């Protein structure tokens, strides 16, 4: 990757030290002192770079690869030319992610916009009743409401809004322009730019003079080590709470309705919409632009394909796709049959012509 000034390369780590950090095996001890400074795809890796391969598709690119080391599983070791140092890992993808974080720690969460952003900016507005632990930083134009509490090591970005009585744990990052209202936030949480947490949910009752607004008096509970993408919205509960479980990762531009409960270590990709009072178990994965109906239950470990429309409950461990969503094998068979019929009709029409 061409260095552009946003993320500078690491000063350098020896390959043996990096292998120990990753829990990987150094294939040849003579490569222990090779120095790694950056990560790169195979196609344009250069000296100082670490790259990784996930399949045999990389074989041709490896022939001309100039990386200082290649990370791969033991099954792909034979693809790597003899001149390239090799790290072997049982999970090369996860190990490469760890390596990237080691070499570029500042890229793991939004950074302060100002070079001297420690402490409380005199251009921020912090209510006198706010309780701050040590090493909290608040950038200019952030607003922190009455009786809010913020834990040690947390950073509040420029222009962020922290509502009254909100509690935010330790070592969190609330990026520039985000707003957090009516919420309790755990430790190690990352909320990216422009996210909206805790606004009222969408609830109305039809009346003789139109739609009557239903009050939303619940909270949003965000557990430890959750990450929430830019411009994502999470509505507070109506009378219960909206909950995001520990370790869950939510992409940009996701909409989560009131009273939704999301389990631990879920992954929800961009532009997903989850309607109110839906419950997701632990380890659920939802592909981009999928829509989930309200008041349904998604079991532990379920995988939902992108652009699916989920209208009913899904048992634990299932893989669903399509509109309406059904077991993935059924969806794929039906799609193949439609394509085959369409192709056959086209050929018949061409023959008749």
Strand order of the largest sheet: 10-13-16-19-24-27-30-33-36-38-39
Q: Sheet with the most strands?
A: 11 strands, mixed
How many strands?
Answer: 39
Whole-number average pLDDT? 94
Write down the CATH topology of the largest domain.
UDP N-Acetylglucosamine Acyltransferase, domain 1
Active site: 258 (proton acceptor)
Keywords: Acyltransferase, Lipid A biosynthesis, Lipid biosynthesis, Lipid metabolism, Repeat, Transferase
Family: Belongs to the transferase hexapeptide repeat family. LpxD subfamily.
Protein name: UDP-3-O-acylglucosamine N-acyltransferase
Walk me through what this model shows.
It catalyses: a UDP-3-O-[(3R)-3-hydroxyacyl]-alpha-D-glucosamine + a (3R)-hydroxyacyl-[ACP] = a UDP-2-N,3-O-bis[(3R)-3-hydroxyacyl]-alpha-D-glucosamine + holo-[ACP] + H(+). Pathway: Bacterial outer membrane biogenesis; LPS lipid A biosynthesis. The protein is built from four helices and 39 strands. The strands form six sheets. It has an eleven-stranded mixed β-sheet, with helices on one face. β5 (49-52), α2 and β6 (69-72) form a beta-alpha-beta unit. The longest helix has 25 residues, at 328-352. The chain is flat, with a radius of gyration of 25 Å.
């Amino acid at each position: 990757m061409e260095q552009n000034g946003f993320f500078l390369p690491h000063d350098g780590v020896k390959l043996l030290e990096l292998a120990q950090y990753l829990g990987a095996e150094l294939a040849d001890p003579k490569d222990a002192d090779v120095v790694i400074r950056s990560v790169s795809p195979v196609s344009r890796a250069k000296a100082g770079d670490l790259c990784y391969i996930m399949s045999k598709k990389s074989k041709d690119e490896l022939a001309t690869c100039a990386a200082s080391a290649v990370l791969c599983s033991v099954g792909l070791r034979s693809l790597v030319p003899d001149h390239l140092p090799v790290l072997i890992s049982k999970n090369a993808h996860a190990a490469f992610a760890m390596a990237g974080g080691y070499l570029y720690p500042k890229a793991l969460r939004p950074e302060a916009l100002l070079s001297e952003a420690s402490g409380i900016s005199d251009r921020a507005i912090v209510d006198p009743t706010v309780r701050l632990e040590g090493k909290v930083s608040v950038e200019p134009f952030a607003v922190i409401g009455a009786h809010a509490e913020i834990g040690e090591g947390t950073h509040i970005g420029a222009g962020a809004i922290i509502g009254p009585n909100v509690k935010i744990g330790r070592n969190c990052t609330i990026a520039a322009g985000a707003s957090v209202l009516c919420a309790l936030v755990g430790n190690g949480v990352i909320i990216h730019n422009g996210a909206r947490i805790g606004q009222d949910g969408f609830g109305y009752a039809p009346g003789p003079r139109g739609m009557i607004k239903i009050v939303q008096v619940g909270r949003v509970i965000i557990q430890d080590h959750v990450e929430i993408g830019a411009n994502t919205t999470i509505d507070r509960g109506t009378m219960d709470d909206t909950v995001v479980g520990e370790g869950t990762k939510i992409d940009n531009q996701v909409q989560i309705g009131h009273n939704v409960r999301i389990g631990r270590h879920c992954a929800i990709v961009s532009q997903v919409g989850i309607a109110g009072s839906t419950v997701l178990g632990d380890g659920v994965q939802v592909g981009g632009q999928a829509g989930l109906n309200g008041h349904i239950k998604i079991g532990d470990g379920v995988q939902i394909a992108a652009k699916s429309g989920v209208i009913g409950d899904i048992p634990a461990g299932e893989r669903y796709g399509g509109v309406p969503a059904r077991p993935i094998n059924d969806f794929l068979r039906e799609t193949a049959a439609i394509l085959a019929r369409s192709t056959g009709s086209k050929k018949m029409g061409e023959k008749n012509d």
